[in-house]
Amino acid sequence: MYALVRDLNGIPGATSLVICLTGYQREDREDIMTMVELMGAQVSKPLIATKVTLLICYEFEGDGNFNNEELKVLSKEVTLPFINCSYIFDSYGYQI
Predict the structure, then answer these.
(1) What's the pLDDT at 74?
(2) Rounded alpha-carbon distances, angstroms, from residue 45 to 5, 55, 85, 93
(3) How does pLDDT run across 30-61, given as a tens digit for each residue?
(4) Which of 2, 63, 65, 67 has its CA 20 to 30 A from that of 48?
(5) What is the mean pLDDT of the chain?
């Protein structure tokens, strides 16, 4: 699922990112976490609103742990951007 990082130092600017995943299971979750770490960002397994800078959502309707309304409220309270895994793939410069 992932390609090698073009630079062994990761992607410029990624070190300031703390990324949390929601809705991904097993291999997909592990692959995306590996990509995040290779790009130089940190992975936060628990969603710590004051620490996380990006939330990668499998579905924006919720994943069983949160309902859609809770995620919307959290995002507005801490200005937390919701993205999908395409953001990570785009950071590497390729499409899935």
Answers:
(1) 66
(2) 22, 11, 16, 25
(3) 988 998 898 899 999 888 778 888 888 887 65
(4) 2
(5) 76
Nearest CA to 39 among 82, 84, 92, 81? 92
Q: How far is CA 30 from CA 2, 24, 63, 75, in A?
A: 11, 9, 17, 24
Smallest Cα–Cα separation from 11: which of 95, 94, 96, 88? 88
Task: Write out the DSSP string of 51-87.
Answer: T-SEEEES-TTB-SSSBHHHHHHHHHHHTPPEE-THH
Which residues are registered as beta bridge partners of 20? 55
Burial class (CB in 10 A: 0-12, 13-18, 19+), 41: buried
Tokens linked to 33 = 């976490």
Contacts of residue 12, defined as CB under 8 A and 6 or more positions apart, other chains included, come to none
